[in-house]
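In the previous chapter we treated chains in isolation. Here, by contrast, the input contains two separate entities that must be folded as one system, with a combined length of 758 residues.
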Amino acid sequence: MASIDYPLEHPAVKEEEFSFSNHLYEWVSTVDHKRLGLMYIVTALLFLVIAGLMATVIRLQLAFPNGHVVDPDTYNRLFTMHGTTMVFLVGMPFVAGLSNYLVPLMIGARDMAFPRMNAFGFWIFLFGGFLLYFSYIGGGGLSGAGSAPDVGWFAYAPLTSRAFSRGASTDYWILGILVAGIGSIASAINVIVTTLSMRCPGMTLARMPMFVWVMLIDSWLIIIALPPLSAAQIMLLIDRFLGGNFFNTQNGGSAVLWQHFFWIFGHPEVYILIFPAFAILSEVIPIFSRKPIFGRPAMVGAVAAIGFISLGVWAHHMFAVGMTSWSNTFFTASTMIVGIPTGIKIFNWTATMYGGKIRLLTPMLFCCAFLFQFLIAGLTGIMLATGPFDWQLHDSYFVVGHFHFTLVAGLVFALFAGMYYWFPKVSGRMYNEKLGKWHFWLFLIGVELTFVPMHFLGFLGMPRRIYTYEAGRGWDFWNLVATSGLIFQIPATALFVWNLLISSIKGERSGDDPWDAWTLEWSIPSPPPEYNFETIPEVRSSRPLWDLKNPNDPDWRFE
Amino acid sequence: MATTLDTHAPPAVGEWHLPDRGTMGVIFLIVTESALFTIFVVAYVVYIGRSLGGPYPKDVLDLPILASICLLSSSVTIVLAEHALKHKKVGLFKIWWLATILLGLEFLVSTGLEWRKLIYEDHLTISTNLFGTTFYSLVGLHASHVIVGLIFLSLVMVVSLFGFPIQTQERRVKFLSWYWHFVDAVWIVVFTVVYVIGR
């Protein structure tokens, strides 16, 4: 199964002369799932840096009372573009990139089910992103009003109507996200079909790696939850360009309907974003604890449960708009229920580590931090799910602290874990462990400094999205602490980028299987050849590589 | 048990069949399209009877009986076409396929005439009231799917008329047929919501 005789001595295709244009042509015209996956991830990292710099400006503005770093209009654009970019141009391409790169390798396939649709998905996503950012130039429109979108990432009606959002900035927001969403849906359908139709012989659903399971259900959520956003955006376009009345309260339309439609998408979306974290942890923790994952069926069941329950919790974002008490009760209850499978997952990861031989290398460090921080994020989520509590803290910095704890202290930590873990596979070289540890500790300190005080600020009554505040409200100290976290976060991120760049050129050769892992992607050379598997492997258990390495004690005897 | 060293060779992986990827692709395309339509249908239902001014559905909407019959029977003719292709009767396939296209076109023309009447005689446009907004959006979204379907159906028609061996493409013809059935099924929902419940 392992193709040890790669590279072939006499390649069938004569190697072309290396030139920049050849290279560019290869990347632009590629339909290879690994290259597209990398392109997704690199794009996501670039947008992450851009949106991170926006957050830096936001924090600098709020560091001291009566800040004058940016004016109020610019501030509105900054938080809108920061949120929109992070969700649609960082989170979504990470989902697509990780699943593109890894799913075929893990299920023993040579490519995705629809390679050309895959390329289409990437390019339309990328140009959707460009369209959103072009608003900085073209957002003024014919009337010259507006620049980048400034309506917030959930663009509540009626702020988005022609009367209140002049110029073309909101249209760029709508079209950019609509177009990028088509790419996400294409990629999600591709992942689902690849998982269902391209698995190698013996790879039953019961033996499929946890990563693939999570990504399968993630893609299911994407194809169910993204169209509602597209539909709502089409309605908004009809309102803005054809004079429709969907969200026009002057003519009987309902602004609350937009909120419903947006959050029918928006809440599953946050699960779509956090699922890659679940997927990465379910691979990294077992490998670095030297134990198979604890309670595999329960883990799959929990993910599937989230995949369905999370479709019915959306209105917990709307407790403050004045729904009926029945609605409030229902959405409080359903939100509490979705906490149960999430809790199961945290227990099972902990149980996987319990009694294991833990190797505290960089990926594992990030996973451990994830467990603690995501637990806190989950608990503040349960607090906010309670209607009366939410009435008190709705739209306050407590909410900002909550979702940044899930997405930064949670998702981003897991993404770092995943990138360190699969870096040797992708590049064929080992990252610098020392730099990795520096990155981890600096980033950990920075994240805690920035996001823990936000919870306190919420309790102290600071609303979200204010561009400044006056001195003496008790917010000065915690805001300064939150901003000071940047001193750690920025060098940490720079170290990470530096580590990846330098290690991919000068790093030690890692070999095919540096972690002594159990899933199929480690059975092939690093970096993987274009055809992935020289011969399609056959699988007999959920740890095919363990079976190969331990022929005397294979898993298939017990499964 | 692990203590007794088993020297048996690993068990053979038996017969290995997975669903066809094209089939799965079409199924999940239909799933995601259904989610899109659901939101438009929900918007329509939410706004039934909420228009602040006329014209109202009960005053201006007529049941599009003929158009509906045409569209629904096109689902039958496309199955007959598929059946003919399965038995390699390419001539018969072309006849049923053409019938499907014509029935689809009839539906589209009826919709066009209905809209023309609504706009010019009843003065109902997309910006008049909530009924206009939701009606043109939902029916228009469906009609745009009919148009896309017709484009693909015509493509198959044209290439087979120019002598392309269409019998080699039975699988792809099946996918088109599924999409067409989906468009028909959506019409049943739209018809019920717009012309029965909403009136």
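Chain B touches chain A at residues 2, 5-6, 10-11, 13, 16, 18-21, 24-25, 28-29, 31-33, 35-36, 38-40, 43, 46-47, 50-52, 126-127, 129-130, 132-134, 137, 141 (CB under 8 Å). Residues 50 and 130 of chain B are 7 Å apart (CA to CA). Compare these points with the single-chain example from earlier in the chapter.
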